[in-house]
DNA-binding transcriptional regulator
Amino acid sequence: METTLAGPPADHAPAAPPGDAEAMVRAAWLYFVGEMNQSEIADRLGLSRVKVNRLIAAARAEGVVHIRITHPSVEMIALENELCCAFGLDACSVTPASGQEERGESEIDKRFVAIAAAETLARAVAAKPDGVFALSWGTTMAAVAQAYRGPRAPRARFVSVMGSLTRKAASNPFEVVHRVAERTGGEGYFLPAPYLADTIADRDVLVAQRTVRTALDLANAADVAMSGVTEATLESFLVTQKLITEGELRDARAAGSVGSFAGLFFDAEGAFVDCDVNRRRVGVPGDTFRSRCTIGVASGRLKTESVRAALKGRIFRHLITDETIARGLLHR
């Protein structure tokens, strides 16, 4: 932080200043630059402490003192405020770019964003230690769980927002609920169902099962939901981890999809599209996210337009992202 004054510096102030204007500058300089307390300034200038307090307040009010904060975080705070205003967000966190991004996303940037998201989740748990927290899975959310260092909250409940089983394994390698629940001492709940059912009819049968319905009801009633945002491309983890096929991705894109949130594809306006994957997905309905405190997490410039679309559709009102995406959203 830098402090500058419009008046000349004074290393040795006289005991009797000739007038309030000069006394104001001298008092301000001794306080902000000389780092003297008000009692010391009063003794130096031969004034009362009340008078010194008024002179310092006047220096601020009249613009004699200019305070400039020069920490790198200031620029991120400015971006956060701009994003909140531009997209009507309730909250936003932007992490500085690492300068290591090459093919759309760097592991360093992802880690920075994951740490910020983990801290946000920890604050939410601290604020409501008996709350329900619905979490998705994926590479970003796995990093969030890894970075989580929150308080103990044995009454907290953590639940998956979508099916946890995949075509390739009995349990998803990116499941985060267990890890966060373990670190808080809370309870973890899983959807004992696949992310995608084979058919729409199979999905209907699955969600009618008591154990699945219980977990879904809990997730639907969550106080806070958090998920990563993915792009609708072959680089998306849904494709690279073989959670969906390239054909299923083409079908989603043909329906207008530009990205996904919690495994649900949405279009450029942030509306969830009518595609085969969305119809067969087992999980919290898309509109549920809009009706509660939902946090979107994203890093890497390739996700910029997906994040923009999600914000337009108000899928989430709290964004945690990196500087690259933030500047892209603001066209800077």
